[in-house]
Amino acid sequence: MPRFSIIVPSHGVAGRLSQALDSVLTQSFGDFELIPVCDAPDSPAADVAAGYAERDCRVAPVNSPPTAGLAGARNAGLRAAIGEWLLFLDGDDELVPGALAALDARLNETGDVDVLYFEHERTPWWVGEPTNPAAPVLARTPGGVFAPEQAPMLTGVQLPAWSAAYRRAFLAARQLPFPDGHFTDVGFGGLVVLGAERMAVLRQVVLRHLVRRQGSRPNLPGEHHFELLDQAELVLARAVEQGLPESRLGPLFEQLFAAVLKTAAHPRRLPRRRRAFFRRASGLYRRYRPAGFRVPGGSLGVQHRLLARGAYAAFRALRGANRAATRAASAVPRPRGLRTRLRYRWQLRRRLDRNLAVYCAYWGRGYVCNPAAIHAKARELAPHLRSVFLVEAEQAHTVPKDVEYAVIGSRRYWDVLARAKYLINNANFADAVIKRKGSVHLSTQHGTPLKKMGADQATYPVVAAATGSFAKLLARVDRWDYNLTSNRHSTQMWESAYPAAHETLEYGYPRNDAYYTATAADVARVRRELGIPEGKKALLYAPTHRDHATGFESSLDLEALCDEIGDEYVVLLRAHYFYDRGAKRGTGRIIDVTAHRSSEDVCLAADALITDYSSIMFDYANLDRPIVVYADDWDVYRELRGVYFDLMEAPPGRVTRTPGELAAVLRDGSWADDEATALRAAFRERFCQFDDGRAAERVVRRVLLGEPPEAIPPVVPLAERIPAPAATTLVRN
């Protein structure tokens, strides 16, 4: 029997789950079993947990459906546990170094207690100092083993479940699972203390809890707050049933109703049915109020009295909701220009246009990428919607003639942004855009992340300086309702880079549909448009942006490369879109396609890809054509930019580090040999999971038509997909 069973629910934290598991597996004390609880065997967290289980026999994942909630996940772990003591971590919590050794030592001192409480540190996700809210609660308890009567203020309802270790035999004997519903910690914590006989305290921080930006579910708006009353009633009913003495019932009652009054007085938590919540709370208050209970002093005491009387109108006046609303409104950003501000504010007061969808790609660079692919599919499947594409003035001429558009910054731009129900972007809308109630924001992203993105850039000074305010970035992310991914890796990394309360759609990238729907005739047409000579093999060279460099300057001499590999090749040069200025950079055998509107067309035309660390490799892999990595500065790039995985350990094909090596693999054919093919197959298995030619359809049906997830077409297995054919066969003559 292991000393500890450590149960880690993982719903919604796949991107940070590895940190929690690592904090356990790197403990100096190793006598434990680690039980990650995953939504389903094919969930993002299950992939992470399975990898750990393969490497360490102490990791034993179990499953619990999301519908069972946090309580169901913890109970599933509890049923599977065989350890002497139980610990519960949230999926983004961490044990501090030496935590298990400290717990073991303290338990050896205390003997067979039922529960050992310890301190924890609440760490703000972004700004602010860590706090230790358990310390003042535990400071008033005896130093040794004590009975609950000796510490009546320690009721259990003020501490989360992950701030204690529980003797498994005690929970089993008292039949104490986590009660269903939200606020399960309140019910569980109260019932544990009501059932305990011997308790002890460790006055030391054992666990670090990450306070999520998007807030915990109990603090978000919704009618689930009524479940707080369920938990309070559950605990109070058990206390009365046990005949709890007034000395203990009074503190328990006061602490439970402190939480209830905090919710009742919080206008955002209960946007609707506040009166019904107050009425039920008032009934519970009168039913369970101890005979000798004395209300607290000050404003809280006034709230107690109003609740006891059921005086909702007076309580509502006391809340000061209007002052809070005024403060919130004063912080709302506005567009520049008085007339524009006034017009935008007026448009915001009008009803949402439920048939209006607004699209934007790359901050207005034109009709491209995922937004364009979704727009095209929406015209087919949702013709009732009016669609408007947002573009910069200098890009207006590139928009297809049959596509309605608005120039960014114009009055029409602000009008459609104010009234559109659907807002779709592969980057982000301006800071001044207000997220209206009832509107739906979809972030489509524009690539699979190799380099660190979003908030994960904060520890890399060069890119952090270029990013600007992370607070503003995350405020823009908070507007998202949906975020699109094309593979499980992206699902996990976006969760880390853009922490918010949006829903992830593992539907694939709509722009990549072209790699499965295009025909040989389409490939031939694009090659003609790009000027690729008949019979030539086209190598697409697509290097990424360097944050530490200014302007585009390729480290690869393409003219010299062409001389080395022979005249049967031409090179398509596509610099990062940051450097698209419409100028040509190539002549003869080097064709500059940087300014070409569609990266998908360029990829279709290319017989093989040469890149360094550009995310284009993940899209191009869908075509199942050779990829060569030219990594001449990988160590510098990795250190300055930060990456999510080591590309050198899992490349999509041959890796070269010098111009000579690159020319050699192109000359001798090893770029397309069996080893290169095997590397590409593994890369495709990992990163082409959801791209199958139907991504745009899935997005339109789910987001724009509101179809339920179970009605969305499933992803076609990778082995059954047929990519668009290449123009030439890549075998060295």
What is the terminal-to-terminal distance? 65 Å
Q: Per DSSP, what share of the residues sits in E-state strands of 2 or more residues?
A: 5-15%
User: Radius of gyration, Cα only, in angstroms?
Assistant: 30 Å
- Tell me the number of helical segments per DSSP (H or I, 4 or more residues long): 28
By DSSP, the count of extended strands is 21
The secondary-structure class comes to alpha/beta
- Helix content class: 25-40%
Order of strands, widest sheet: 3-2-1-4-7-6-8-5
Mean pLDDT: 89
**Largest sheet geometry:** 8 strands, mixed
Question: What oligomerization state is this entry in?
Answer: single chain
Uncertain residue segments: 321-333, 577-586
What does this structure look like?
Helices cover 39% and strands 15% of the residues. With 733 residues, it is α/β, with parallel strands linked by helices. The strands form 3 sheets. Strands 3-2-1-4-7-6-8-5 form an 8-stranded mixed sheet, with helices on both faces. Strand 19, helix 24 and strand 20 (627-630) form a beta-alpha-beta unit. Helix 7 (184-195) packs parallel to helix 8 (226-241). The termini are far apart. Residues 321-333 and 577-586 have low confidence and may be disordered.
